[in-house]
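Justification of computing resources. Each target in the renewal requires a structure prediction run like the one illustrated here; the chain below, 71 residues long, is used simply to show the kind of job we budget for.
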Amino acid sequence: MISFDYFLLLLAHLAVLTFVSYKIARLRNRNGNNDDDDEGGTGFDLTPPKLDLPPGIVLPRDVPEEMEAVH
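Resulting structure tokens:
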């Protein structure tokens, strides 16, 4: 037989699920009126940044061709 503690636990879970589903449904209805796909914020620039390295520091992909022949 289900004890009173399990009954309260089940009741609390149902209350939380009802509250969360209500909030999600309200959020979808409120934001569902927008026809644009813009989510705000700035777009991502997928190109790597150009680093300003001190003299003598060379990244592996920036090695000149004559240095590649030495290795």
